Amino acid sequence: MNLSCPAEVIRALRCSSTTWWSGVGPASALCTLAQLKMATGVLQRVSGGLARAKGRAHSAGQLVLWSRGFATSSSRNREDSWFKSLFVRKVDPRKDAHSNLLTKNEESNLYKIQFHNVKPECLEAYNKLCEDVLPSIHADKYYPCELVGTWNTWYGEQDQAVHLWRYRGGYPALTEVMNKLRQNKEFTAYRKERGKMLLSRRNQLLLEFSFWNEPVPREGPNIYELRSYQLRPGTMIEWGNYWARAIGYRQHNREAVGGFFSQIGNLYMVHHLWAYKDLQSRENTRNGAWQEEGWHEVVYYTVPLIQHMDSRIMIPTKASPLQ
Question: Residues in domain NIPSNAP (predicted)?
Answer without folding.
Answer: 224-321
